[in-house]
User: Fold Energy-coupling factor ABC transporter ATP-binding protein from Comamonas terrae.
Amino acid sequence: MPMNAPHGLQLQGVTLRRGITTVFENLNLALDTRRIGLIGDNGAGKSSLFRLLCGLDVPQAGSVSIGGQDLHAARAEHPGLVGLMFQNPDDQIIFPTVQEELALGLRPAGLSRQQAKEQARALLAQRGLAHWAERAVSSLSQGQRQQVCWLSLLIAAPRVLLLDEPFASLDLPGQARLAQDIAQAPQQVLVSTHVLDHVRGFERVIWLDCGKVREDGPGAEVCAAYEANVALRLASMPHTSMDGIHG
Ligand SMILES: Nc1ncnc2c1ncn2[C@@H]1O[C@H](COP(=O)(O)OP(=O)(O)OP(=O)(O)O)[C@@H](O)[C@H]1O
Assistant:
């Protein structure tokens, strides 16, 4: 790593277009903080940022680096550097059964297929989910599939965890468990969410607004600023009436 290089992920002058949409233009971000929340309206660019940070998308201009090294070069050397939990579990899950899906994350660590399956079963048992091992992923509910996605990431243990709306389909116990897991994770964790309470206590929250950083600072302050902005926008909206819709 070059001297004085940032140790975390960094975007420099990034422009990203997806289809006809310019999502980011000349975006600069240094993501060194241990816990970072990402908030903002639908379409603000949260998932797009995660796609850049894990190398799924490549910017049309600018660079994405980690520890001062180009992200793609770094990932080629260390495949387990950055892991993404997708917003939609169906974009993430590849294998038919839960244990195979979890075992996938262990193969880069050099484990045999059998060893990886055994570790996957051990993690499931530790979580009281031993009965899920042979279950077809397609037979699980949306929230259960989301749990599988989280466990896959947990077992793969990348150095940086990117969680895209990980709480969205979880029940209350599942949300509490995930919040606890995040708090205990030794790695850097970035979480995007529309439920601000999940990131309000984070040391850093970034509010994205139409692909730009609107606010960046302590979670409590940035969440309060976003809430105030939403309240203001709601107050200035004309009141809609349901009259006539129901008859
Ligand atoms: N596959 C795609 N092709 C083209 N444009 C896309 C695609 N996915 C997203 N976009 C556009 O990119 C912009 C950013 O979308 P993105 O999914 O990153 O937002 P988001 O903040 O994650 O939104 P949400 O809160 O709804 O998940 C939006 O204008 C969106 O319409």
